Amino acid sequence: MRNPRGNIFISLIILIFLLLGTTLVILYARGYRFNLLQGKPNISKTGLLVTTSIPDGAQVIINGNLTTATDNTLDLLPGEYDVKIVKDGYFPWEKKLKVQKELVTKADALLYPIAPKLESITTAGVKEPVIDPSQTKIAFKVASQSALKNGIYVYDMNARVVLSLQTAAKQIANDTAALFSTASLAWTPDGEQIIATIKNATNTTTYLLSANQLNTQPRNITATLPAFQAQWTQDKEEKAAAQVVGLKSSLRKLIRENFSIVSWSPDDTKILYIASQSASLPLTIKPRLLGIDTAREVRDIQKGGLYVYDIKEDRNTKIMDQIPSECSDNFTLCKLPISWFTDSEHLLSVKNRQIHMLEYDGTNDTVIYAGPFIDSYVFPWPNGQKIVMLTDLNNTTILPNLYTISLK
Q: Are 339 and 387 in contact (CB under 8 A)?
C-alpha cells in the first residue's frame, strides 16, 4: 500500500522547489545577482545595459575593458560607466551612461564609415537646391543646357529607380516660357507646388508650379501673391497648432512661453528650438520617469541658445550656446546650419566647412565628411542610409552637382 504521508511529503518538497525556483527567476529578472563580496556570500541588485549598433557586430568596451559585442544585454552593478562601441572601418561611439538597479539602460550606436562612398546623382549642373517640407524631394535649377533642358527640376529621393539614380530627377519648368533657370525657389507648405520668383531690372514675376509634372503653361500669381502668402501662413499656423493641441496644458504653456520652434523631429516627439527668453524650465512630468538619463540635461535656458526638448521624457538638452548673429532677429529668414536626421535621434550639422552628425542630446559629434561642398546644401536621405550634398569636388572646370555620401 502507498504511504499517504509519504505522498504528501513528496508533494510539499516539489511545491517548495517550484516556489523557490519561481522566486529565483523573479529575483533574477529584477536584477538580483548572487556573488562573493570579500569572500562572503552576497545578493545585490543590478541594472541591465542593452547594447545595439548599426551596423551590428561591433565591440563593446566598458571602462576600458572589451566586454561583449553589440546586440547583447549585460548585468551591471549600479553606477556610471564609460561605454565605447567600436567597429573596424567606422568612427567610434562613446558615452558615459548611468546604470540604475532594476532598470534598463540603452546604448544605441549609429556608426559612420571612416571612408564613405560618394556617388553622383545629377550630371547637368545644379544651382541652389531646396528640400521640401517632407524631406523627400529636392528642387533645383539647371542653367547649363539648351532652353528646353534648362529650368527647374525636382529630384524625388523616394522614387523607385531601376537603371540609374539620375533618372529620378524630373523637369517641371523650362526656359521657353520664362527664365526659370534664374528663379529663386521655395516650396509650398504641403510640398505639392513650387513658388518660382524671377527678378530682372524692371520687375518681379512669381509663378506657382506643380512639383509633379512639366508646367507647359506656368501659372503667373504675381497679382494674387499676397492672398496666396496669407493662405500659406495660415496653413503653417494650423499645422503648428495641430502639433501641440494634443499636449497637456502645462506643456503647451512651457512651449508657448519659452520656445521659438525651429523644427519638430520627424516622429513629432522632440522639438529643436531657440530659447525666446532666459528661464528655468519647470518639470511637466512628475515624478520623473524611471531610467531617464539626466546627465546632460539643461533646465536653465539662455535667450538665443539652441536646444532640444524631448516631449516623451520631459528632458531638455543644449546644442548651441548662441545661434549665429545673423539669425537672432528672425531665424525663419536665416538657414540654421543644423536639421533633424530621419531617425529623430540625430541631428545633421554643417560647421567649419565640415558635415557633422550628432545625437540629439549633443553627444557623439562626429565629422562624417570633410571634403569640399557648397554652402549649406546638405540634406538627409529619407531612409537614413545617405546624405545628399552639393559639390564640384574642388574642380572649377565642372559645374556643381548633387552627390550622396553613404552612411553604410
A: no
**Check whether domain 35-110 has CATH 2.60.40, yes or no:** yes
Question: What gap in Å lies between CA 374 and CA 397, rounded to an integer?
Answer: 15
* Distances in whole angstroms, Cα of residue 118 to Cα of each of 11, 108, 280, 296, 403: 70, 26, 45, 34, 6
CA distance 391 to 387: 13
User: Residue 125: how many CB atoms within 10 A of its CB?
Assistant: 17
116-165: pLDDT as tens digits: 999 999 999 999 999 999 999 999 999 998 989 999 999 999 987 544 54
- Residue 188: how many other CB atoms lie within 10 Å: 18
Q: Phi and psi dihedrals of 167, rounded to 5?
A: -75, -5
User: Three-class SS of residue 68?
Assistant: strand
Among candidate residues 273, 285, 266, 263, the one with its CA nearest the CA of residue 344: 266
Is 208 in contact with 183 (CB distance < 8 Å)?
Answer: no
Say if 35-110 and 121-226 have the same CATH topology: no
Looking at domain 121-226, its CATH class is mainly beta
pLDDT one-digit tens code per residue, 74-121: 999 999 999 999 999 999 999 999 999 889 999 999 999 999 999 999
The amino acid at residue 78 is P
Q: How far apart are CA 115 and CA 99, in angstroms?
A: 34
- Per DSSP, the residues of 263-314 read EE-TTSSEEEEEESS-EEPPPSSSSPPTT---TTB--EE-TT-EEEEETTTT
Q: How many alpha carbons lie under 13 Å from residue 110 in its C-beta half-sphere? A: 21
Cα distance between residue 198 and residue 196, in whole Å = 7
Q: Which residues pair with 50 in a beta bridge?
A: 73, 106
Question: Is residue 284 within 8 Å of residue 251, measured between CB atoms?
Answer: yes
Roughly how many angstroms between the first and final C-alpha of the chain, as a whole number?
74
Domain boundaries, the chain: 35-110, 121-226
Look up the pTM and report it: 0.85
